Amino acid sequence: MNLFAIWCLCSINLVLGANILNCPPEGVKFEKVLGLRPANSSRPELLHRSPSTATPVTLECIAKCQANQECASFVLYYGSATCYWYRSIANATEEDNVIDENSAWFVKKCFSNDGSCGKLWIFERIPGATLIGNDTKEVPGAVTRSECERYCLDETQFTCRSAKFAIMDGAPSYYDMGGVKGRCILSDADRHQLPSSFRVSSYSDEYIENQCAPSTNSGDEFCAYEEYDNTTSTHIDLFFPSKTKEECQKLCDEFEQFNCRAYSIIKGDACYLHSEDSKIYGPNALKFLAGSTYYEKANCLNITVSCSETYMTVEYEPDSNFNGKMYMEGFSDNPVCSAPGEGRFHPVSLKIPLLTGQCGIIKADGPVNRTLLSGNLLIQFNSLIQTQNDRLIRVGCIFGNETRVVVGTGVHVSPMQPNKGSVIIIPTENSSVPNVIMKIVDPKTGLDISDTQIGQELQLQIILNQPNNLDIWASHLIAMTERTDESIFLLDDRGCPTDLNIFPALRKIVTKDRIELTAVFQAFKFTDSPIVRFSVNIQFCVGECPPVICGTNIVSHGRKRRGLKIETINGTSVIKLNRNDLRHNKTSVMFQMPLEYIMIVKDSNKYQADRLVTADNQKILVAGYDYITNEVCLDYSLVIALIVLWVLVQIFFVIGSIVLVKRYKRYYQHECTRQSMEELHKNFGIGFSNLENRRVHWADNENIL
């Protein structure tokens, strides 16, 4: 072997790593990284570009990188349908990577053939996310990310569906090339089964999902699709022309090269498949597109509906811890129309009256003596607030020849006008105490948010400007309605989160001219009000405020606090401070102040069930409506009844027409005869007009001429 060949071999080993070079061709697969990509300074080269930006290129880019031995990874840009490849990722550090939710990063890895399962990418990895709880098994010691994924594939005691990888402090990079190690926890659940447990986190936490995990219910894990009108996803992986909705859905259900999570119908017959859903990035992952419809897979719910002459009984058996409530939409406070949850596997039963008009039950009469009584049932996983994981089910009964049950999916929250507010500090004269503000912003743009959507990723910021040897912590964070009739604690008196599924611990960011307490969370709303009012107590201390250990690996910035007087100036809560307030020791709380922020949470994307179906999956009355072609799908028996009715109407119309024609003919003949006689009499000096009845008066006298 000459020196040039040795140099080439060493270079390739440095770029790809020995594990890829020694891997059999069928074992070289990809890991898909979401929300993170290398910076353009890493000198990427064009791999593939779509001749039309409307055509997705995911499969083509994977095939080209697979065939190129020097291709270590590639980045797919969904917006331009273009991908660029990289020769090396050995020096990819945190500073070299860019947060980008409009792209996907595919990295070559070696997986043995027994773990490949035919998927183009074996794992999906989301930096900055985690699955709260559901820790089935922890791998002992510190392992690399590739080792953590191998443990998941090789697990035999249970089906490993996901893993949590926590990078150790001081780790220099996001990739294994430099031997990055961390804590690995395997789970028998994933974010699709437990969407309320999937939360944003720091970028030292990573959520890794096994794409080869089998379905839990023999392929019936997802039995419904949520429908979004005039909407599509920006991340498109595959395109099929000239497909109906049913054909496109079948393609998504049966596609094997990747897990299809959603599909879109655009321009009536263009079918697009998506490997991602809106639960990763929230509503921002979807965009408005007139005439399109987006369908996203939703988990099956173990719901049974039975009907009697006067009641409809709905029973829900949760497969996870359910402490929320089940109620008819708009009637959460009515005990007749709602039922609370009582934990895992404990059935929740709701008996809804049908004939009294309660609970939003709507009556619709159909032909052949059939009547539909239906309403919208909301399953809310938190007893006080609504999140994007709640489910709206259409339930109902049909009375007539037989009783049927209707089930569907969807969520819709009515919007209101935006409003917001906060409390500020005004320093008194000869005081150097800085202002403190609280705001909620879009973490991508940094712009203030006054109204948003359920599930949208938001960032709460509490900012102390020009601290001047002051520090802050926060506690007693409450979310409430505008009338404070409903409220929920997000941070307790110590500043610790009460429910990580709703709100995480506060993180402190210290710079030269400001101190910021921040937390990223997903927007939620209360059941009966779209207005969410945030209120928090801020405490100050000289020097540094010590953090509070709230639990395992949970650190927040909260402490006990003292009281402080608040004044009101022109309707605004104001706190005036002076240097006399700064007479406490370094670690004690000097004073506290409240901050407040009001926002509107709504759902601008109305989505609903794609059709109404019966318990045995048979179509009823009106079985569906195509918003693109304005076509209505009808039941077979209804179609026959309509045809018979149409024929009868035509028969009656023909008979009526014949009767009218005969009557008109008789009338016409009579008129012709009368006009002829009148013309005849006129020729003799008399006419029908002169033949009038007259009164004759005789004279009273006898002189009659």
UniProtKB/TrEMBL annotation:
Coiled coil: none annotated. The keyword Transmembrane helix applies. The chain crosses the membrane at residues 636-661. It holds the Pfam family CUT_N. SMART domains: PAN_AP, ZP. The keyword Metal-binding does not apply. PROSITE patterns: PAN (PS50948), ZP_2 (PS51034). Residues 306-557 form the ZP domain. One of its GO terms (biological process) is anatomical structure morphogenesis. It comes from Phyllotreta striolata (Striped flea beetle). Residues 1-17 form the signal peptide. Residues 23-110, 117-212, 223-300 form the Apple domain. Keywords: Membrane, Signal, Transmembrane, Transmembrane helix. This is Uncharacterized protein.
